[in-house]
Write a structure and sequence with these properties.
Elements (H helix, E strand, L loop, with lengths): L2 H22 L2 H4 L4 H10 L23 H12 L8 H27 L2 H12 L2 H6 L5 H17 L2 H4 L1 H17 L4 H17 L3 H18 L1 H9 L8 H11 L7 H17 L7 H15 L4 H18 L16 H12 L5 H26 L7 H15 L6 E3 L11 H5 L11 E4 L5 E4 L2
Length: 453
């Protein structure tokens, strides 16, 4: 292997390893084991034949429109879970592996598409080390899986795979729509990817190929929605998949409510500023993004494929969320848009007339991104951590080692309301028996005592 080829291999491998290490450091001591994680990991522990035909329930009612999240989570449980006693933090490690693999692929894709290692590294470091991303990416949680799949599909478009074969179109479309299966908010990234595939072919004068690709995309989406159709037909009393979304649109169409364009812009601006700007969250950051988007629109006006995976998803999200009658305070709504937003930012700031100046700016951005990473990592450690998990894990292992069943498990420390102190114990093989003599009491140091009442 020659030196350039070795470098092209080593850099993404190192990227995968370093981002994974940042994401999973100490996960067996602070895994965020709340209601959603318990529910979804319990499902993944079952057989594939018992997996739901739709995705997880949403906090606004209904459920996501397909089972891709549960398929992937089940596969993680099968491949990664046994290395960690099938405990839920093993699922978090598996999901972090998917995220870091997506980062490595995106780095390679940006590098090939732009011809600049500095642009690729700066973009990837900014995306992968965002504090909120680090805090949530190693969870058993469907929005983060949706963001990872959207990232991989974006990488496939950047390397031009869909333009080379129908199989590439089908695979990329399946990845993008599976992201929507995982989390409905990924639909804006998915639509941008679909438009990019078709528009890229149109721009090259291949109209027949563009039409064929559009048909393939439609067919892939239709096939991936078969499980939802089967679910709806077999569960006549089931609520609609995304009742809150369709209800919001219906209220606006009927004139009962108005589109919330200003609120949607504020939601996007706040999410971008927090995700990419924390712990400082400078208010001017969104205006730098807006200016960069304008520059990118001008410079790449003859490259609709690139514009469709950078600027277009952000515009679609702002317009689309305007038809959602709700709040925009949940910043994770926008995770799948971060690759598009960050790439827009980097491409806009490096759009200098001189290639040498552009490369210098990109290198400076990389240095700045690396310099702020320690602060981002420290801030991530303050969010979405559950130190009680480590104490529960230690106590549960001690109980299982003692080999007798208990009536139940209590803790000497408060737990979040939706946490289950018995979940880890049951996974490890312990038995909860209502006729047992003792109830176990786990202390902060993981030690175990017994109570007779």
């Amino acid at each position: 292997m020659d030196r350039p080829a070795a470098i092209r291999l080593i850099i993404p491998v190192v990227t995968f390893a370093l981002t994974l290490a940042l994401r999973i450091h100490g996960i067996d001591r602070h895994f965020w084991m709340l209601r959603d994680q318990i529910r979804d990991w319990t499902i993944a522990l079952g057989p594939f034949s018992a997996l739901p035909l739709v995705g997880p329930a949403t906090h606004v009612g209904g459920y996501t429109i397909g089972p891709a999240f549960y398929w992937i989570l089940w596969l993680i449980r099968v491949l990664v879970g046994p290395w960690f006693d099938n405990l839920p933090h093993g699922g978090g490690i598996g999901q972090a592996m998917v995220q870091s693999a997506a980062d490595a692929l995106l780095l390679v894709a940006i590098w090939r598409r732009t011809g600049s290692l500095w642009v690729a590294l700066a973009s990837t470091v900014l995306i992968a080390t965002a504090a909120y991303d680090l805090a949530l990416s190693a969870l058993v949680w469907n929005p983060m899986m949706g963001a990872a799949l959207a990232k991989v599909a974006t990488a496939m478009v950047l390397v031009g795979w869909p333009s080379r074969s129908n199989a590439g179109v089908a695979f990329t479309a399946a990845l993008a729509w599976s992201a929507v299966h995982c989390y409905t908010g990924a639909v804006f990234a998915a639509l941008g990817i679909f438009v990019s595939i078709v528009a890229g072919l149109f721009a090259r004068g291949d109209r027949a190929g563009a039409v064929q690709s559009a048909v393939i995309i439609a067919a892939v989406v239709a096939v991936l929605e078969v499980p939802l159709v089967v679910h709806q037909m077999s569960s006549a009393s089931a609520p609609p998949a995304m009742g809150a979304v369709t209800g919001s649109v219906g209220r606006i169409v009927s004139g009962e409510a108005r589109p919330q364009f200003a609120a949607s812009w504020q939601g996007f601006a706040g999410a971008f500023t927090f995700i990419q700007g924390a712990p400082w969250q400078p208010g001017w950051l969104i205006w730098v993004l807006a200016g960069s988007a304008l520059v990118v629109l001008i410079k790449y006006r003859r490259d609709p494929a690139l514009l469709s995976i950078t600027v277009l998803p952000q515009i679609l999200a702002i317009a689309g969320y305007a038809f959602y009658v709700g709040d925009f305070l949940d910043r994770y709504y926008y995770f799948s848009l971060m690759p598009a937003a960050v790439l827009t930012l980097v491409l806009g700031l490096t759009a200098a007339p001189s290639p040498r100046i552009a490369q210098g700016i990109a290198a400076a951005m990389l240095i700045a991104a690396v310099a702020i990473t320690p602060a981002r990592v420290r801030f991530a450690a303050t969010m979405h951590r559950m130190p009680e998990y480590g104490w529960l894990l230690d106590g549960s292992k001690r109980l299982v080692e003692r080999g007798h069943s208990v009536k139940g498990i209590r803790t000497q420390f408060p737990l979040p309301l939706s946490a289950d102190p018995e979940f880890l114990y049951r996974i490890l093989g312990g038995r909860i028996d209502s006729s047992a003599e003792f109830t176990a009491l786990i202390a902060r140091d993981g030690q175990v005592a017994y109570q007779t009442h």
